[in-house]
């Protein structure tokens, strides 16, 4: 018998569902459909789904400790966004001069900084002078974004160990999730090592850390979510009825439910006929528990 029980499928049919986050204050799961330009908020107890239409593609976001805005990485850069009023305040667009890149994965770290990385969406990506460029990982504090890593094709998998001593990050096409020594006080990345390599035919997409310090990763193309020990050993596997899971979080009143976003982009008619639930959100009961999501601290 599987240790996972499918509780719900939320039939949203996202093109590219991403950035699944649980808000324990309101009892809601939040996620974005990047290409659909929609933000979703799902109130678990009464099964109410609210959808916010966006003026541009939202790729990653985090909750703010002091108010109800979200700190966001839209395709073009960082902004605060207020669901409900739709107010959008741009902070900084570090790749404004580039053609062919966009923001992708992101998360608030345990000290309240927001991190997000870019990806090459249309290769070759170029700068204003026509030189080829790659993606980067940025750390946002205040209205300043600092570049922390470069030479990236697709930023994914950002998360931090419970003690914040380790940061995890993947450049998805490499197939490897890397683990970095992390200086929580300064927010700097130190020595890096390969943490895990995912099987051929899949790419490491979104990750989250559970209460035991284990890392859960969505294997894009592999149709599964895998739980890894802090040493990188496979501890559990959850097979999904769709091939492209993208991001995940623990939620529910006891933080023991696993919410998984998925994507239907790049699937042709034949593939979609085989996995008609592609793009939906899946909710499983697990014997594991997550950690509350960290919130962004305004300066
Ligand atoms: C990106 C997709 C990409 C996928 C697999 C996602 O995070 O948004 O564009 O295809 O990762 O690498
Ligand atoms: Ca992702």
How would you describe the overall organization of this protein?
With 299 residues, the protein is mainly beta. The chain has one domain: TolB, C-terminal domain (Neuraminidase), CATH 2.120.10.30. The protein contains one helix and 24 strands. It has one helix spanning 269-274; strands at 5-10, 17-23, 28-33, 38-43, 48-53, 58-63, 70-74, 77-81, 88-92, 101-108, 114-120, 135-141, 144-152, 155-160, 166-171, 176-183, 188-197, 203-209, 215-220, 224-228, 234-239, 245-251, 257-262, 281-285. A four-stranded antiparallel sheet has the order 1-24-23-22, with no helix packed on it. The protein has a four-stranded antiparallel sheet with strand order 2-3-4-5, with no helix packed on it. The protein has a four-stranded antiparallel sheet with strand order 6-7-8-9, with no helix packed on it. Strand 3 and strand 4 form a beta hairpin. The radius of gyration is 18 Å and the shape is globular. The model has no long low-confidence stretch (mean pLDDT 97). Bound molecules: beta-D-glucopyranose and calcium ion (CA). Calcium ion is lined by residues 18, 104-105, 156, 205-206, 246-247.
């Amino acid at each position: 018998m599987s240790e996972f029980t499918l509780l719900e499928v939320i039939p949203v049919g996202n093109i590219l569902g991403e950035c699944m986050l649980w808000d324990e204050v309101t009892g809601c799961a939040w996620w974005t459909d990047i290409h659909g330009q929609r933000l979703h908020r799902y109130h678990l107890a009464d099964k109410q789904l609210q959808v916010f239409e966006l003026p541009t593609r939202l790729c990653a976001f985090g909750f703010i400790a002091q108010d109800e805005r979200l700190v966001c990485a839209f395709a073009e850069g960082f902004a605060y966004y207020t669901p409900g009023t739709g107010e959008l305040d741009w902070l900084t667009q570090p790749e404004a001069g580039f053609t062919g890149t966009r923001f992708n994965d992101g998360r608030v770290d345990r000290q309240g900084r927001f991190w997000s990385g870019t990806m090459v969406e249309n290769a070759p990506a170029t700068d204003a002078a026509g030189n080829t460029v790659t993606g980067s990982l940025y750390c946002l504090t205040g209205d300043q974004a600092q570049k922390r890593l470069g030479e990236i094709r697709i930023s994914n998998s950002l998360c931090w160990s419970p003690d914040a001593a380790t940061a995890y990050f993947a450049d998805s096409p490499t197939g490897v999730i890397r683990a970095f020594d992390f200086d929580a006080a300064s927010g700097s990345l130190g020595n890096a090592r390969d943490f895990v390599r995912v099987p051929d035919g899949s790419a490491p997409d979104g990750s989250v850390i559970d209460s035991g310090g284990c890392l859960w990763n969505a294997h894009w193309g592999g149709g599964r979510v895998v739980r890894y020990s802090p040493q990188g050993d496979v501890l559990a596997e959850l097979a999904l009825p769709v091939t492209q899971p993208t991001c995940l979080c623990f939620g529910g009143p006891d933080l023991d439910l696993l919410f998984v976003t998925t994507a239907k982009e790049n699937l042709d008619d034949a593939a979609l006929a085989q996995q008609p639930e592609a793009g939906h959100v899946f909710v499983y009961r697990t014997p594991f528990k997550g950690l509350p999501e960290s919130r962004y601290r305004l300066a």
